[in-house]
Amino acid sequence: MHQECINCGSKYAIDEIGYFCRKCGDLLEVKYDHGELERAAKKSEWRSAPLSVWRYRDFMPIRDASKIVSLNEGGTGIHRCQRLGEKLGLKQLYVKNEGENPTGSFKDRGMTVGVTKAVELGVKAVICASTGNTSASLAAYAAKAGLQCAVLIPSGKIAYGKLAQAMIYGAKVLQVRGNFDQALDIVLELSEKHGSVYLLNSINPFRIEGQKSLGYEICDQLSGEAPDRIVVPVGNAGNISAIWKGCREFHDLGLVKEVPMMTGIQAAGSAPIAHAIKTGSNTIVPVGKPETIATAIRIGAPVSWKKALTAIRESHGTAETVTDEEILSAQKLLARVEGLFVEPASASSIAGLIKLVDNGTIDKSERVVCVTTGHGLKDPDTAVKVSEKPLEVDAEIAAIEEALGLKKQVAVLAR
Ligand code: F0G
User: Fold this and answer.
1) Distance from the CA of 236 to the center of ligand 1, in angstroms?
2) 154 Cβ closer than 6 Å to some ligand 1 atom
3) Domains of the chain: which residue ranges?
4) Which one, of 373, 333, 346, lies nearest residue 99 by Cα?
5) CA nearest ligand 1 atom 1, residue
6) Coil, strand or helix: which one is 237?
7) Residue 37 belongs to what H/E stretch?
8) Which helix (H) or strand (E) holds 140?
9) Among 102, 137, 181, 356, which residue has the fewest nearby CB atoms (within 10 Å)?
10) Is residue 274 over pLDDT 70?
């Protein structure tokens, strides 16, 4: 087990702290000895363990189980969406609802592993830049582990629920006058300069290892079969890369026969990866002033863009952009047809699905899993804004009957 540069293949020890390759500056990923993973896969214990990130302990870069920092992450529901599927003409549609994690987003899968690694490494302080969910999750796991935690968020631009979480868990919350990309540049420089501050953004390869469990779990929940396609919202691009790593590892180990087509969805105003895929480019053009109502994915220079392009191209997937209107209408539809309340960024996977079915990219016979990444209550303001306002009525039966249209029905029955 070691860390390896995704570009030049330079190898680094598993316990070395460093986020980029010292030779070429590219990202690192964790690589395993194939034989060791094969032995882990052959053991039977993990198959009978309950669904959770730590069901896959032997596939993770953590060796000292006594150090695990967990709030019971993973094991989220995969919801068969019959009614939504029927509306779109899809026979097999599922939503993997990551809002069911302890702090309400998929970030917890990465943080349980990343913070456990921080404890193993003996660091005392952790830091991240965030559009909200990463800061909420890191703050919670740092609290559980007794680590100091600082989070940098873009000023005035994150959803209120997420801000409340980071604050109540006791993190030092800094609102940076700038956007997420600027905040990320600062924490990168800070963690290079101060070795004692451990960076837990998704460039940290141990975070990706935790998040790859999302790929494992989807395959396990579909009885050992990969779906034809996984549709994921894309921001900084760690998650799509992680899910792909999980699916590829399961495939290499013979645990699934096929791999899914990875399909990334970006908000139209923050879509450098989707544009690169559509134009066949091998690099991205960062967006200087990213905009979207889906604040979680308002990111113009995704750090894991290269891993994401690889995931999409290797898997024969695709990428699409969706407008704010499409996102909000998909959010409402999912809530009203399936009873699943997800935040706007999460609904972008549903909006993307609708678009790709409409334009014929997704075949109606496909078995599709849409990942919804965060809970709707993270951003109650947007939900209230786009919904019908409550009617204010007098505290009298007659007024309530009038408002609910009950009087008329009674009259009809009486006749
Ligand atoms: N969905 C939600 C709800 C998110 O919070 C994020 C990322 C994404 C999708 C995109 O995932 O970055 O791995 O491509 N949120 C980060 C944060 C950036 O700071 O909370 P990605």
Assistant:
1) 6
2) no
3) 78-102+208-386
4) 373
5) 373
6) coil
7) helix 34-42
8) helix 133-145
9) 102
10) yes
Amino acid in position 79: H
State the fold for domain 78-102+208-386. Answer: Rossmann fold (3.40.50)
Cα–Cα distances (Å) from 41 to 31, 36, 38, 55, 246, in that order, read 16, 9, 5, 11, 13
Mind listing the pLDDT tens digit for each residue in 351-387? 999 999 999 999 999 999 999 999 999 999 999 999 9
Amino acid at 44: S
CA of 359 to the centre of ligand 1 (A): 26
By residue count, the chain amounts to 415
Q: In this structure, are residues 129 and 184 in contact, taking their beta carbons and an 8 Å threshold?
A: yes
Which segments of 194-323 does DSSP mark as H helices, in order? 205-211, 213-221, 238-252, 272-279, 305-314
**Closest C-alpha to ligand 1, atom 4:** 296
Cβ burial 271-295 (10 Å sphere, 16+ → b, else e): bbbbebbeeeeeebeebeebebbbb
The per-residue pLDDT for range 122-169, each reduced to its tens digit, is 999 999 999 999 999 999 999 999 999 999 999 877 899 999 999 999
**Distance from Cα 106 to the centre of ligand 1, integer Å:** 8
Q: Atom 19 in ligand 1: which residue has the minimum CA distance?
A: 130
CA 26 to CA 3: how far, in whole Å?
12
- Which residue bears the tokens 């702290």? 17
Structure confidence at residue 413 as a pLDDT band (50, 70, 90): low
User: What is the whole-number distance in angstroms between the Cα of residue 239 and the centre of ligand 1?
Assistant: 8
Upper half-sphere CA count for residue 378 (Cβ side, 13 Å): 35
Rg over CA atoms, the chain: 22
CA pair distance 51, 295, nearest whole angstrom: 30
Q: How far, in Å, is the centroid of ligand 1 from the Cα of 404? A: 40
Which of 141, 173, 212, 239 has the most ligand 1 atoms within 8 A of CB, as the residue to mutate? 239
Helix axis angle, 160-168 to 133-145, nearest 10°: 20
pTM over 0.85: yes
Buried b (16+ CB within 10 A) or exposed e, 163-201: bebbeebebebbebeebbbebbeebbeebeeeeebbbbb
Give the distance (Å) from ligand 1 centre to CA of residue 385. Answer: 22
